[in-house]
């Protein structure tokens, strides 16, 4: 998710927004409405684009999105629903289902818990919320795919709620990332007790049958399975084994636990296949940026902040104290380095590198599908079009106004014209005598009485200057594309956001056949910073890539080295971060 504040609060905006909220959510009282949208507080309107390209408008108060508008319909975020849980009709489900909803799934009716009071009454398309048993705080927002009567008539089968936004998704992460409050739910207390008793009975049955330990089913995300409370190689291998048998144990883990496992996998793979003894001591920041990130599997992104460790130093401390894999030392104040690796550690020696490690270059190969040809830069040729003023000069060559010519063709036509009309100066063949046609076509009015002859080079350069500039693009396997004017360069600029934040913006990628989304993903993997696609003002079919920080140097490397774009077609190379020089 990416975007930028576009409109600040004003009276008209607040009045219209309050009217829309009151219409969409009539259960909100006047006091609730004033508290949700205060008159004297600053409200920011942020326009973002979802992964599918849908335009979404966010209303942000105190750095938290409180409402979002999609296709002219207003929806509350989980931050708002936690303050006013009664606003929407709410369906109840089991805690493990929440992880699937956060992963992009819709709420299926077999997963709905029906309390004694029954399911809420909704019509098809109504906005509704989803909560888990024992807690009234909603965890997801969506629309009903059918009416309550239809749900009951179908025996609670099929898709019930089309989910738009959940706790732990990108919209939630746009805010302060606070957790849901615990609001007791009287309606489902008995249901939860029954559910727990059934779980205990199932566990007892499995224990008496002597079955092997399996990933814990249907656990609440806040209570991790015993098999993944501590990171170990054996736990990860068991998970892979279960995956081969058609199970998906990773779905039963919270996003934080999944990130912990991914962190360990990348750490072990980096030690085993990337780091050499000759590199030690190795800066911990370099180890993460150069080695661990490149080991991240395709389709996943390594983010330490989403793990239970939060910081690289804490993770490496765990690897040193509990696993005895590395030794980390502070060689200089505030700078840690890996000074020793236990290459004989059983956990490291038994680690097997995944078959599809998803190396950076493979995972971001221009975002292309399997079997698709890699990107090749177009051949760019400068052309010239015959203008109305120069048409008499090209008339003998039968080139009319608008005819597009190569520079060599222009030179040949002008040379032929001069020789056919015997305009070469007999005393000095480096000069061409100006006749009336050349005078009208190439000279300025102030030169009519002064200039009687021109050098050949001056004649050619004046001719090209008076013609209309064009350019031709030839992509491999495609017919040439001719357009008027000079080709627009890829524009790289750096802008300030706030007091000390900068963003890098890249425009005109489409001109060179580059997919902005692919470039955005490639940069995101290279610099491990958030990126977004925003529309270019005044253009309907172009977007710009925006990435956090001054990343001009990395953008240049990507365009020059990977995509082979010539340097002359890149504008803004001088915006690189300048390293301070030595004082003399």
Write down the Rg.
33 Å
The residue fraction in helices comes out at 25-40%
State the major sheet. 6 strands, mixed
Helical run tally: 19
What's the overall geometry?
Answer: extended
| Helix/strand structural class | alpha+beta
Given as residue ranges, the uncertain stretches (5+ residues, pLDDT < 50) are 1-9, 192-250, 357-372
Percentage beta strand: 15-25%
InterPro entries: EIF2D, eIF2D_N, eIF2D_SUI1, Pre-PUA, PUA-like_sf, PUA_eIF2d-like, SUI1, SUI1_dom_sf
Region (Disordered): 176-255
Pfam family, one: PUA_elF2D
Family: Belongs to the eIF2D family.
Name the features:
cytoplasm; 584 residues; single chain; 19 helices; six-stranded mixed β-sheet; alpha+beta; five-stranded antiparallel β-sheet; disordered N terminus
Q: Your description of this structure?
A:
The chain contains 19 helices and 25 strands. The longest helix has 21 residues. It has 584 residues and is α+β, with helices and mostly antiparallel strands. Pfam families: Pre-PUA, PUA_elF2D, SUI1, SWIB_eIF2D, WHD_eIF2D. One of its GO terms (cellular component) is cytoplasm. This is Eukaryotic translation initiation factor 2D.
Overview in brief:
The chain contains 19 helices and 25 strands. Helix 9 (255-273) crosses helix 10 (284-292).
Topology summary:
Blueprint: E1 3-7, H1 11-24, H2 30-36, E2 43-49, E3 55-61, E4 64-70, E5 73-76, H3 78-83, E6 90-93, H4 95-102, E7 107-108, E8 112-113, E9 127-132, E10 140-144, H5 148-153, E11 159-166, H6 170-173, H7 189-209, H8 233-244, H9 255-273, E12 282-283, H10 284-292, H11 312-321, E13 326-332, E14 335-341, H12 346-349, H13 360-363, E15 379-385, H14 391-394, E16 404-405, H15 407-420, E17 431-433, H16 436-442, E18 453-455, H17 456-466, E19 468-474, E20 481-484, E21 490-497, E22 501-507, H18 516-527, E23 531-535, E24 543-548, H19 552-562, E25 570-571
Parallel strand pairs: 6-9, 21-25
Antiparallel strand pairs: 1-2, 2-3, 3-4, 4-5, 6-8, 7-11, 9-10, 10-11, 12-14, 13-14, 15-16, 15-19, 17-18, 19-20, 21-22, 22-24, 23-24
Helix pairs in contact: 9-10
């Amino acid at each position: 998710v990416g975007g930028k504040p576009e409109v600040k609060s004003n009276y008209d905006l607040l009045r219209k927004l309050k009217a829309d909220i009151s219409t969409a959510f009539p259960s909100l009282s006047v006091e609730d409405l004033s508290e949700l949208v205060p008159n004297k507080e600053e409200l920011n309107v942020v326009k973002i684009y979802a992964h599918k390209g849908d335009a979404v408008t966010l209303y942000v108060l105190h750095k938290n999105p409180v409402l979002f508008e999609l296709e002219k319909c207003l929806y509350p975020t989980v931050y708002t629903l936690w303050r006013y849980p009664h606003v929407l009709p709410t369906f109840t489900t089991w805690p493990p289902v929440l992880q699937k909803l956060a992963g992009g799934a819709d709420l299926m009716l077999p997963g709905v818990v029906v309390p004694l009071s029954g399911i809420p009454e909704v019509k098809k398309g109504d906005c509704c919320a989803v909560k888990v048993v024992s807690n009234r705080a909603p965890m997801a927002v969506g629309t009903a795919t059918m009416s309550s009567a239809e749900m009951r008539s179908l025996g609670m089968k099929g898709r019930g709620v089309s989910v738009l936004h959940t706790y732990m998704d990108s919209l939630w992460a746009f805010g302060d990332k606070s957790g849901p409050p615990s609001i007791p739910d009287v309606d489902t207390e008995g249901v939860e007790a029954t559910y727990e008793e059934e779980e205990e009975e199932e566990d007892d049955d499995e224990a008496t049958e002597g079955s092997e330990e399996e990933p814990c089913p249907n656990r609440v995300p806040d209570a991790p399975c015993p098999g993944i409370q501590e990171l170990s190689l054996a736990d990860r291998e068991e998970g892979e084994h279960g995956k081969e048998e058609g199970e998906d144990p990773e779905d039963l883990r919270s996003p934080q636990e999944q990130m912990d496992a991914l962190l360990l996998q990348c750490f072990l793979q980096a030690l085993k296949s990337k780091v050499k003894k000759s590199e030690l001591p190795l800066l911990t920041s370099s180890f993460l940026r150069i080695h661990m990130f490149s080991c991240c599997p395709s389709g996943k992104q390594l983010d330490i902040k989403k793990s239970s460790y939060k910081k690289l130093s804490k993770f490496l401390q765990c690897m040193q104290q509990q696993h005895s894999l590395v030794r980390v030392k502070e060689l200089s104040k505030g700078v840690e380095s890996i000074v020793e690796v236990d290459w004989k550690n059983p956990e490291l020696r038994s680690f097997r590198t995944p078959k599809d490690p998803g190396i950076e270059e493979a995972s971001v190969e221009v975002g292309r599908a399997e079997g698709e040809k890699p990107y090749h830069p177009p051949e760019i040729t400068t052309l010239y079009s015959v203008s109305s003023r120069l048409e008499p000069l090209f008339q003998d060559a039968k080139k009319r106004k608008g005819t597009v010519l190569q520079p060599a063709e222009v030179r040949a036509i002008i040379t032929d014209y001069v020789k056919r009309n015997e305009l070469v100066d007999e005393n000095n063949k480096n000069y061409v005598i100006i006749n009336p046609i050349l005078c009208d076509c190439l000279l300025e009015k102030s030169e009519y009485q002064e200039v009687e002859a021109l050098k050949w080079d001056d004649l050619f350069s004046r001719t090209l200057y008076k013609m209309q500039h064009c350019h031709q693009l030839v992509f491999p396997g495609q017919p040439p594309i001719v357009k008027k004017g000079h080709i627009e360069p890829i524009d790289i600029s750096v802008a300030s956001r706030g007091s000390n934040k900068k963003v890098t913006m890249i425009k005109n990628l489409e001109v060179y056949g580059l997919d902005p989304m692919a470039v955005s993903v490639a940069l995101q993997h290279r610099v491990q910073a958030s990126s977004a696609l925003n529309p270019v003002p005044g253009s309907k079919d172009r977007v710009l890539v925006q990435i956090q920080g001054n990343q001009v140097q990395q953008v240049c490397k990507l365009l020059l080295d990977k995509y082979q774009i010539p340097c002359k077609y890149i504008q803004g190379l001088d915006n690189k971060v300048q390293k301070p020089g030595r004082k003399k």
